[in-house]
Amino acid sequence: MRVEGITPILNVSDIQATFAWFEKWGWKKLWDWGTPPSFGAVGSGNAEIFLCLGGQGGRGKGKNPATFGPNGDQTADKGAWMSVFVDDVDAVHRVCVAAGLDVTHPPTNHEWGVREMHLRHPDGHVFRVGTGTGEHED
């Protein structure tokens, strides 16, 4: 078997607001389906994410202000977690902070060789946005 690609599907409570949320950190709305829309997609580069209004997976934002680190809780949010690799996580962080998005873990160099931040969607989906550092501890 050879997988050609994978497209996650996120359960969202407001599809139009989700299109706008993704656009704030550099994604583009690719298409929507239905009147009013109940399904659609966003994309950036070669990556694509489907959005489903009220279905296909779980969602739920936790009360945790941080998703990682000493006071973080990785289990409170009930949405999907995804890793998104970018060329400059610090630039993405600046864009997200300026847009007022929920950054739950600032850019941090981790021992697994990734400089990573966490970004939380209003429905509890968490994006681990990172850039490889070329270094890691064995």
TrEMBL record:
Q: Which Gene3D superfamilies match?
A: 2,3-Dihydroxybiphenyl 1,2-Dioxygenase, domain 1 (3.10.180.10)
List, alphabetically, the SUPFAM superfamilies matched.
Glyoxalase/Bleomycin resistance protein/Dihydroxybiphenyl dioxygenase
Instruction: Show where the VOC domain sits.
Output: 2-132
- Which Pfam families would you find in this protein's record? Glyoxalase (PF00903)
**InterPro entries recorded:** Glyas_Bleomycin-R_OHBP_Dase (IPR029068), Glyas_Fos-R_dOase_dom (IPR004360), VOC_core (IPR037523)
Q: Please report the name of this protein according to its UniProt entry.
A: Bleomycin resistance family protein
Taxonomy, top ranks, is: Bacteria, Pseudomonadati, Acidobacteriota, Terriglobia, Terriglobales
